[in-house]
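Predicting holo structure, LO7OFUQM bound.
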Amino acid sequence: MALSGKVAVVTGGAQGLGKGFAEILLKNGAKVSLFDVNEDLGKATTAAFEKEFGTDNVLFYVCDVTSEKQFKDAFQRTVQTFGGIDIVCNNAGIINEVDWEKTVDINLSGVIKGTYLAMDHMKKENGGRGGVIINIASLAGLGPFPTCPVYTATKYGVVGFSRAMAMASVAAGYGVRINMLCPTFVRTALLNTLKLEEQCGQFQKLLEVNKTFLESFGILEVSDVVKAFENLVLDESQNGAAVIVKTEGFHYVKFPTAEDLQIKSKQ
Ligand SMILES: NC(=O)C1=CN([C@@H]2O[C@H](COP(=O)(O)OP(=O)(O)OC[C@H]3O[C@@H](n4cnc5c(N)ncnc54)[C@H](O)[C@@H]3O)[C@@H](O)[C@H]2O)C=CC1
Ligand SMILES: CCCCC/C=C\C=C\C(=O)C/C=C\C/C=C\CCCC(=O)O
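Done. Tokens:
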């Protein structure tokens, strides 16, 4: 997909991976709408982007992905301003094993809400232009991260939901591709969770496990994941596939496709 002139939404775009994804989209000539619950950080990131990429190309909405109303309004206002949506990256996520319901609300329900709202605007039967939805999972969506069982469950949920939606999109003729990104550890604010007892609760004492995992998988830079994201947005050939990002590089995990299962499009 050529990105120049396309319209993108990135949730959790104020910092970390989301900020990196937004920046590469802007560099490729897309217009980007950032949704984030952190107003101060969101405004600061938007101001920096406006300076580099122009005030007509960036929007920011204070939006908690657990709020249907805020999420719906942010999508609608983006469409009103930019004229449609072509790319959605459901990226907002947290680790909190104590308030684990919040983790499910943001990481899984937030991705489901974001995907359904995106579809409302993008699917061809509603007059949308089609496009791509990239849901940010984790390597912990494909294998267990023992100190974060609920986080692991949400990321497995993101992978399962996205695979099913990718097939549903083919069957229904929505014209929207869905892919998942599954990075190992990345140097962002989320890594600080390692030190926060109130977020890790009973699993804080399993520090040795974290240490072993971190030593074994290493730590990526945001730029490593951004490269994989850019490739995934541009490559239109792999609906329903996940991309794993490790320190050695990135590669596709291919699951059975709609075609393999002989699912036919309505159109
Ligand atoms: N950092 C890592 O090691 C890895 C991160 N991931 C995933 O990447 C995604 C981004 O994570 P990072 O950039 O590392 O985290 P981060 O903590 O640096 O950034 C997360 C952003 O999401 C926003 N956010 C949090 N709750 C929100 C809500 N309810 N509504 C809207 N925005 C909200 C935050 O304000 C922040 O701007 C997450 O889904 C995470 O699970 C996946 C694999 C590894
Ligand atoms: C206790 C708090 C730890 C904080 C860690 C911070 C961020 C982690 C984010 C992730 O998404 C986890 C990244 C990698 C997954 C780790 C293990 C998966 C193992 C998969 C496999 O066995 O192949």
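The chain is about 45% helix and 15% strand.
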